[in-house]
Each structure stands twice: as C-alpha cells, then as structure tokens.
Design brief:
It contains 7 helices and 10 strands. With about 190 residues, it is of the alpha/beta class.
C-alpha cells in the first residue's frame, strides 16, 4: 500500500491566517495537496490539530483519507509526524506538508520507482524538497525519538539519496502571505 502522512495540524502563525483552506485554483490549498497525493497514493493519513473539527467534518466521508488528531500539535511539526507514523500500516511512506498544493502525482511516482531502501528526497535545481519517501524502519525511529527531535535530523542520521525531478513545486510551501500570493500567481 502506498501511504502518505500529510501534515495539517499547525497554527499557520507566519501566514497570519489559517492557510489550509485558503483558495487555490478553484479549490483550497489542502484539497489540492490531498488530491495530488491521492492521485498516486492509496491512503493519506491527514494529521490535524489546530481547527481539527473543520478538517474532520470536511474529510470524514473520504475513505482514502484517515484522519489522525494530534493532541500535542502545539509541540511542533515533529509531534505531527509521530502521530502520523503511529497510524502507518507498513511499507515505505511519504511525508508532506499540507501547504504544498502544487506537487503533482508524477513526483510521488518518480520517488516510488526508485529501488533504494533508504530515505529519498526529491531535488530540483540542486535543492531538496517534498514529499520525502521514507522506509518503514524509519517509522520505528520516529516513534522512539525524543519529542524535541526533528525529521530532518533523523533523515540525515539514517542517510538519504536525492532524486532529481523536473518540478520546482517541491519547494513551494506557503508560509507567508507573500509566498502564497507569489505561488498563486505562478500556478495560474
């Protein structure tokens, strides 16, 4: 099974407003990110936190989306990664922020086609981005790691391979109003 942990629990503090349901190409940021992941993955584990009730109401009828509430979402992104990792069924898995609505299914497919058993990071113009594809053994490390850990350091310690892709959208997260406006204009 192709699984993806999608992180949508944060406060969007740098954006100044909650970004997950901001408009994006006739839909929303999170709807687009989910649609793109589900165009390749069998299941998305959507980790919620801030404004979780809205997301649970919105996606509870989607059988390919497993909702996973992170009670410790205010502790930071790694707490959400851990929450999602606890819900995995086994096998390699993707991790991607929910504020990356322009990553298409081809990026997921390119990573999945690699025969590596290690961590795989897409790379565009020499810079790594998202989604990351991780071996199931890393889920055990994620769950056992101290709360103050982060995914980046675990991936570095485990070792990774950069996989060149032809999509600059692997770098397009939406953290600030300026980034959102720029990406919205670029995507149209």
């Amino acid at each position: 099974m192709k699984e993806c942990i999608m992180l949508a629990a944060g406060l969007s503090s740098r954006m100044g407003s909650w970004k997950m349901l901001l408009p994006w190409q006739g839909s929303t940021v999170l709807d687009s990110a989910l649609d793109n992941a589900l165009a390749f993955c069998d299941r998305v584990i959507l980790v919620t936190g801030h404004r979780a009730a809205e997301l649970h109401q919105r996606y509870m009828g989607c059988s390919a989306v497993q909702l996973c509430y992170n009670v410790r979402y205010q502790a930071g992104m790694f707490s959400s990664v851990r929450c999602g990792a606890a819900a995995l069924s086994g096998g390699r898995f993707f991790v991607v922020p929910g504020d990356m609505p322009a990553i298409d299914a081809e990026v997921y497919a390119q990573l999945w086609q690699q025969q590596s058993c290690g961590c795989l990071l897409p790379s565009y113009a020499g810079k790594n981005g998202h989604p990351v594809l991780l071996p199931f053994t890393l889920a055990t490390h994620i769950l056992a790691a101290p709360e103050e850990s982060n995914l980046r350091s675990l991936i570095r310690a485990y070792g990774y391979t950069s996989v060149p892709v032809e999509s600059r959208a692997i770098h397009w997260d939406l953290d600030t109003p300026e980034q959102y406006q720029k990406r919205l204009a670029t995507a149209c």
